[in-house]
Amino acid sequence: VGIVDRLINRLLTEGQQIAGDPDADPLDALRRIVDGQIAFVVGERDIAQVYYREIPNLPEDDRRRLRRKQRLYLEDWVHLLTELRPGLDASAARTIVHCAIGAIQSTLQHSAGLPEARLRDLLRQSAMAVLAARPGTSDGQATPAAR
User: Which end of the chain has fewer beta carbons closer than 10 Å to its terminal beta carbon, N or C?
Assistant: First the structure.
């Protein structure tokens, strides 16, 4: 738990510093947070895998504390995303952020077999595409911007 705590604290601190910088460009700040998540997943892969596999087995107090930190970290992403997409409500932004983080973390379930630099680049592109995606119309057809 100690190692995971330190990693989550690092992500949370970095995210708060990036999102809290009043002079930062929101898009650049979001890219930096995405890069931090990629660094965690790719650079600390073994620890990240253990964490995601074992968090349900942790004592309840540890699990709650770690989940609380995750929620705070997620809110930094949401803050930046809603600055970039002002028409997006917070609930929708949280869903989109979860999707972007899920795209990054999906590599924990398989070995991509790619050089690390290429993997990081693909993960960044994928996460940023998810964060920028525009929803389709109510009939399920893509909007002109999404085509």
Answer: C
Closest CA to 101 of 136, 130, 71: 130
57 burial type by CB count under 10 A (0-12 exposed, 13-18 middle, 19+ buried): exposed
> How far is the CA of 20 from the CAs of 9, 85, 87, in angstroms?
16, 17, 21
SS3 22: coil
Decide: residue 137, CB within 10 A, 0-12 exposed, 13-18 middle, 19+ buried. exposed
Q: What sign results for the dihedral spanned by CA atoms 80, 27, 88, 137? A: negative
Give me the amino acid identity at 77.
Answer: W
* Cα 42 from Cα 52, distance rounded (Å): 14
Cα angle 89-72-104, degrees, rounded to a multiple of 5: 80
Tens-level pLDDT at each residue, the chain (147 residues): 677 788 888 889 999 999 999 899 999 999 999 999 999 899 888 888 887 887 888 889 988 998 899 999 999 999 999 999 999 999 999 999 999 999 999 988 888 789 999 999 999 999 999 999 765 534 333 333 443
